[in-house]
Amino acid sequence: MKNIKLHILVIFLIIAAELIGTLSFQVGPGKVVLVPMFFALILGIILTLKPVKVAKPKDMTDASSLIGLTLLLLMARYGTMVGPTLPQIIAASPALILQELGNLGTVFLGIPVAVFLGLKRESIGGAHSIAREPNVALIGDMYGLDGPEGRGVMGVYICGTVFGTIFIALLTTLFAAYLPFHPYSLAMAAGVGSASMMTSSVAALAAMFPDMQANIAAFGAASNMLSGLDGLYISLFLALPLSEWLYRKCYKVKYGVLPEKAVRLDKKAKKEEAAK
């Protein structure tokens, strides 16, 4: 909190991103929407590059300690969007709650691919969910963001913010143009637990259905908020234990030993090397 330089950089990023605003462009029948959060992330990455040398490692370490606080503010903002349309949301609550079970698919797809690409415990952080804000907080609390699980979840989080916003907005508008889904159902599907993805998708839907704009935004925000709430418990009690189990199985298939035995063998080899 005492890093004045960090606060100045954050204010600069916010002002620059808001000045750029929301940009959208057509891709066939679909629409890609780039929200200010996307530009803030890109500018933030540029500031950390070595040739620029604006943000130092200490600034990045200090910034990581504020993630939890910013997530609290974000969830409060979602609550203000949900209130006015609460009756419609209550009527659709079973679908909103059960949709989070779909995130378990990332475990079965992501863990085997990550392990066979050579990742170790980074795969648990990156593939136990779609790695959005609540999941970053969960991994940070359980494993720490400086460990391999933290690197995994932050890597997927950044990739999701950069590429996910473009992908989900395009996918949503293609579904709206070609498939018989109601705009509200697509808005609910957009609430995967990511503020940037939900905002991008909802903005694209609102541009296609301007008369439903308020309800589309409310359903998207409610879905996103519930994904962050019940999704946190699904990640904690289902996805993470499943990820740990599947990681051990995939690790043994690839390397022929369980990961804990590999760690012991590695320590033993290092001791023998040091003794020579």
Q: What features would you highlight for this structure?
A:
mainly alpha, globular, single chain, 276 residues, two-stranded antiparallel sheet
What is the secondary structure topology, with strand pairs?
Layout: H1 4-20, E1 23-27, E2 30-34, H2 36-48, H3 57-64, H4 67-82, H5 86-91, H6 93-98, H7 105-116, H8 122-127, H9 133-142, H10 148-178, H11 183-190, H12 195-208, H13 213-255, H14 259-275
Antiparallel strand pairs: 1-2
Helix pairs in contact: 1-2, 2-10, 4-13, 7-13, 9-10, 9-13, 10-11, 10-12, 11-12, 11-13, 12-13
Structural class: mainly alpha
Unreliable stretches: none
First-residue to last-residue Cα separation:
47 Å
Strand neighbour order, sheet with most strands: 1-2
Biggest sheet details = 2 strands, antiparallel
| Percent helix range | over 70%
The count of helical stretches stands at 14
Average pLDDT works out at: 79
